[in-house]
Amino acid sequence: MFVPESYSLGLAMAFGALCCWGSWSVTLGLTKDEMAFPVYYFNFNIAFLLTGVLVGFIGGSVGSGGEKYGFTEAYFEEVATGHEWQCDLWGISGGVVWNLANILLCKGINMMGNATGFPLCVGLGMVTGAVVGYVQDPKSNVAFLIPGVLVALCAICTVGFISYRKEKELAAAKPGGDSEDEHPSKQSSSEDDSGSGSGEEAPTLQGAGMAKKLVVCITGGLLLGLSNIGVGKATSDPCLLSPYANQTYFAIGVFLSSLIVVPIITRCPIEGGKGTPISQMLRGYCAIGLKYHLLAALGGFVLCSGFFFFNLGNKPLSLTITYCIGQSAPLVGILWGTFFFREFKGTSWRVQGLVPVVLVLFASAIGFIAAAG
Questions:
Q1: What is the per-residue pLDDT across 271-309, written as a single tens digit (0 to 9) for each?
Q2: Which of 5, 60, 87, 133 is an S-S bond match for 239, by CB 3.0 to 4.6 Å?
Q3: How many Cα atoms are found within 13 Å in the side-chain-facing hemisphere of 113?
């Protein structure tokens, strides 16, 4: 199987993971006014699963480099009989927990925007993942790890404050608006209309309050870091799943858990308001433009590709270097939300001026965590 052996190729893989992890959510922002979330996630899931299996098969069956790291079996041999069932289950469980986190992340982005919802959730996932990694393998230097975690928490708190101030200012700017509860932000309004492309009447949502938005993002961030437990167990001794087998089982866990979770959150929306049966949401599937179906599928492909880049890049590099480069994704998400979606348009310099502060705090936290390794 193909596994990079050179440092330069490993570095390229790590930056590939950064670009994929920081950019996939753009597809969510481009489609949320044209299709309901269950429709988006259906396309996303199919693409994620197919990418996990097809890329796993191709990369795990051709090329060289795997022998250097002890991966001597071809893809189908490893997936079918290469490991104990407990190892496969660890890989699947990592995908299940991660998928719960990713669904909450998507909801947080829809409610808060890419520039605030993304770094709030993923940034906390970076902190939780670093702590989980240390508990599983306590080799990091706590003299750098603890400051890194604290600085990251400062960045997350700053993002929360920015979100609060942005909501207040956008609400006050509307005619007769002076309360974020009475006048939810533009991002919340967009979520209310997100079912317009489903071919059915969208559920009536009242617009989630700031407290609920923060709870959704924080819970997603905690689960994001906890998903590393399953992945760590699957890829470490005695399991030692290859990057391709691990990601295949991970994608299966994502797909299976979506079959249960997505209908539940469609019937009982996280944002509040009246739920809708998922069958009603999917009934208008063919009425949505092909462009938006392809964008949703692109999101699943890009995100799953990011996992492959990460798992392959950390072989010639150290896991710490690859992890810190990949976990710079909140910086990319902030830039997309600020300059592409222009989510801070209409806010004061007090809000916009804190965006560079968040970037510096996240960059500093990543530097500390890298030094801890």
A1: 888 888 888 888 889 899 999 999 999 999 999 999 999
A2: 87
A3: 27
Distance CA(308)–CA(133), nearest Å, equals 19
Question: Are the C-beta atoms of 132 and 227 separated by less than 8 Å?
Answer: no
CA atoms within a 13 Å half-sphere pointing along the CA-CB vector of 223: 19
Give me the number of domains the chain comprises.
1
2 occurs within a structural domain: no
State the residue for tokens 């960045």.
Answer: 155
Q: Report pTM.
A: 0.87
The pLDDT of 239-252, averaged and rounded, is: 93
Cα dihedral sign, 264-132-87-54: positive
- Structural domain includes residue 158: yes
- The one-letter amino acid code at 10 reads G
Inside any domain, residue 203: yes
Task: Give the structural domain span for 16.
Answer: 7-372
Is 328 a domain residue?
A: yes
C-beta separation of 17 from 310 below 8 A? yes
Distance CA 64, CA 293 (A): 36
3-class DSSP state of 2? strand
The residue type of 297 is A
